[in-house]
Each structure stands twice: as structure tokens, then as C-alpha cells.
Amino acid sequence: MIRSPFIRVGNSTRRMSDYEIYSFISSRTQPTFDEEPVLRATLQDLDRAKLEKYLAQRKEARPNAVYWDQPFEQILKQLQIVVEVDGILHPTLAGLLMFGIYPQIFELQLFIAYLQFYGTTTTEEAPSGERFLDNRKFEGTIKEMIDGAVTYVMANMRKGSLIRGVTRQDIPEYPEVAVREAIVNAVAHRDYSHFVRGSHIQVRMFANRLEVENPGGLYGRVTVDKLQEGQSTRNRLLMHLMEDVHLVENRGSGIDAMRDAMQKRGLPAPVFEDKRTAFLVKFYQVKPGSLALSDAELKILAYVKEYGSIRRAEAEKLLQINDTKAGYMLQKMQKSGLLRKEGRFKETRYLMP
Questions:
Q1: DSSP-based helix, strand, coil % in the chain, nearest 5
Q2: Is the pLDDT of residue 172 over 90?
Q3: Are 187 and 93 in contact (CB under 8 A)?
Q4: Tens-place pLDDT, residues 128-148
Q5: Residue (of 139, 54, 133) closest to 95 by Cα position
Q6: Which residues does 27 contact at the CB level (< 8 Å), separation at least 6?
Q7: Span 259-299, pLDDT tens digits
Q8: Which of 84, 277, 279, 344 has the fewest C-beta atoms lying within 10 Å of its C-beta?
Q9: Do the Cβ atoms of 181 and 251 come closer than 8 Å?
Q10: What local confidence, expressed as pLDDT, does residue 296 receive?
Q11: CB of 62 within 8 A of CB of 79?
């Protein structure tokens, strides 16, 4: 009898699960699950209009490709959107997810779930006894899932307000660029193997943070410490198709985009966790363990984001408080790392750190 190998977790040692063994082996090869045919689906389950739009974009970008004079079905085969099995054309998994009429008919769990919790844990209950304040599912093609999830998450997070003259600007709790990049990365880099194809991506909103988790840990030689350097691609075909329609840009740039967006808002850098069987991104409103930002602090940060800096007199006017309170608040935000100070006396201004 062959026994499974062991793995060190924290201060303990345990046997590796079948999925952990698979993940360890597959990280040293190129997975091709996104290239496999979905045998229950046929060419008729792909949206012709979406395919024609994609081919027009691709032809404009690569007009000299050798396959443009071939029949429609042959072009799709060349691009691995479909494969032929026993004389029948079936979409690849990547082709179905990108261009399917309704992909979840064939892959029920390949969706994005949004869960909003009352507190900072999954078990904390609201006074009414509810743990979930919201529970949504986003289905469709990859673009439809991403757009639907991002739009809904942004619409349902808390917002601060910045008053400019007679207009009011709402500043969301977390920057949309960071939220979108995290969700896009989760879809593009999740594990589509048969071990976890029954698992879905989760976006979880807590009182103090936003989390995005996808099945499958980091792939290849990439580690959390070297995310920006990593160029390993688990889903080679899917990534290629997503790049063609500009759902993803330069590979590896998503991590920088998340960090930059959070920094510009004066928020802590995103936290990345490789859990071996899943990858998790956490966005905190403030550094873990610190106090939540007040409405006044949110207004100041929104003002600095808009205008680049703030002076004490500007904070007085913005918050409708006296100069002593304005000065105290700005100094407090500086000491807590939310702002940095520049200049002296009347030339003093506060900027993003």
C-alpha cells in the first residue's frame, strides 16, 4: 500500500490530500484543463455574435495571420476555441467560458459568489440574527461575471462624501481598480482542474475588509513574496483569450495595479495569502488592529486624493470645524501613517504617504 507524503503546516505535520499532491505535481508541468473539450456542449452553445466580434478584433490586431482565408469553423479550431472529437465540434473550456451562451449549463460551479457579512467574521450575527446581509451569484461568460460582480460590489460598499461647491462626490470604501484586478486575477488564475471545478470564486465583504478567494493556490515557482516577478500562467489558453479582449493587460501588472490603487487612497497594501488549495486577496479599510476611519478622516483622504494635498485652512472649510480641531486631526492622521507632512508653519500641507 502506497502512503501519501506528509506536509508541514504551522507547528504540525499531516498527510497531504490528493488535491495537494496533484497541485504539487502540476506546478511543475503545464496544466491544460482550459484546453480540454466540454463534451456535453457543441458549437451551437457558443454565441455567434460574440465569436464574430472577437474574430474581427483579432483580425484587426493580426491581419497577416495565415488562417483568415479558412472557413469559420476551421478558424475556431486553429484558435483552440473548439476542438473536434469524433467528427463533432466541442468548445474548449476556455472557449465556453469566453463565448458561451450560458456556460453554467455545463459547468454549474464556475460562477462568482458575493457574500456580505454583518461583522468581521463569518459567524458574527446582526441584532436581527442574520449572518448574511447579502448573498448573490454572478454567472455568464467571464466578461459578464467580472462586470456584474464588480458593478455590484462597488454599488453596495460604504462610501464617504466629498462636497465641492454645490456638488457631492461619493468616494467608495475600496478603489474600483483594486477590486476589479482582484476579481479578474481570480478568474484568470483559478484552478480549473477536475479536483476543484466544483468550487466557485468568492467575494466576501466584512465590516473591516473585502476578500477575494479563488480555488487553487499559486502556480509554478511563484510565491507570495515574488508575485510581481512571477510570469507563470496556469491557464495558458484562457489567459491568451482574455488578453485578446483586453480583460487582462500585461501579465503580472495586476498586483502592481492593486497596490498602487490602495496606496493612492491612503489605504494599507493588499494582503496576499497562498493557502495551497486556494489563493486569497484581502483589502483592509485600515491596518488590521487599528481603529476604523471616521467620516471626517474619509473626507480628508478623499480631498487629498482629488487635489493632491490639504492645508489646515482647507480642512477647516471642508469639515466646518475650527483651526485647532483641524490641526489636531491632520496631525493625528500623520502620526497614524494616513498622511505625511510637508513644509513648515503657514506652508505646511499634508499629502498621501
A1: 40, 20, 40
A2: no
A3: no
A4: 778 888 999 999 999 999 999
A5: 54
A6: 219, 220, 221
A7: 999 998 888 999 999 988 899 999 998 655 555 667 788 78
A8: 344
A9: no
A10: 83
A11: no
Residue 123: its H or E element: none
Q: Is the dihedral of CA 194, 197, 199, 205 positive or negative?
A: positive
pLDDT over threshold 50, residue 2: no
What are the Cα distances from residue 48, in Å, to 30, 45, 55, 100? Answer: 30, 9, 10, 9
Amino acid at 251: R
Confidence of residue 1 (pLDDT cuts 50, 70, 90): very low
Fold category of 112-284 in CATH: Heat Shock Protein 90 (3.30.565)
Nearest to 225 by CA among 181, 286, 273, 279: 273
CATH (residue range 295-351): 1.10.10.10
- Is the Cβ–Cβ distance between 233 and 239 less than 8 Å? yes
Cell of 6: 506528509
Amino acid identity, position 159: K
Domains 112-284 and 295-351 share a fold: no
Backbone angles phi, psi at 126, to 5 degrees: -75, 165
What distance in Å separates the CA atoms of residue 232 and residue 217, rounded to the nearest whole number?
12
Residue 43 makes CB contacts below 8 A (sequence gap 6+) with 73, 76, 82, 89, 90, 91
Whether 76 and 89 have beta carbons less than 8 Å apart is answered as: yes
Q: Give the model's pLDDT for residue 346.
A: 81
Q: What residue ranges do the domains of the chain occupy?
A: 31-101, 112-284, 295-351
Q: DSSP alpha helices (H): ranges in 140-212?
A: 142-156, 176-189
Residue 242 three-state SS: helix
